[in-house]
Design a protein that fits this description.
Elements lengths: L3 E4 L2 E4 L4 E7 L8 E7 L6 E6 L5 E3 L7 E5 L5 E6 L8 E8 L8 E2 L3 E6 L1
Parallel strand pairs: 2-11
Antiparallel strand pairs: 1-3, 3-8, 4-5, 4-9, 5-6, 7-8, 9-10, 9-11
């Protein structure tokens, strides 16, 4: 069973930056899509950023130009660099390793809280 552990969340003022990390127990990101999702209080979980095993990134419109996803060389860690943070970015952020075909399992981390104060 693959385990994902996020870190790097915290409290930051609007306009500030945070870098989230997600460490996997194996090189799952060599075969699975890497992803960051978030869930704000009272809202559904939403996609933030993703990267294919080949390294092609994609972003939600709300974070384009401010957030950057990266995958470590060993394919065991992914990162989310978040700049120009806004109060509406406040949420629990989850990393995910999502299968690229129906036979593969999806894996999720437990989440890390990001709070942006105005």
């Amino acid at each position: 069973q693959v385990q994902l552990v996020e870190s790097g969340g915290g409290l930051v003022q609007a306009g500030g930056s945070l870098r989230l990390s997600c460490a996997a127990s194996e090189s799952i990101f060599s075969s699975h899509n890497a992803g960051w999702w978030r869930q704000a209080p009272g809202k559904q979980r939403e996609f933030v950023a993703g990267a294919t095993p080949g390294g092609i990134p994609n972003y939600a419109n709300s974070v384009k130009g401010r957030f950057t996803i990266a995958v470590g060389d060993a394919k065991t860690t992914i990162f989310l660099q978040m700049n120009s943070l806004k109060p509406e970015d406040t949420a629990v952020y989850y990393c995910a390793a999502l299968g690229t075909n129906p036979m593969e399992h999806d894996y999720w981390g437990q989440g890390t809280q990001v709070t942006v104060s105005s």
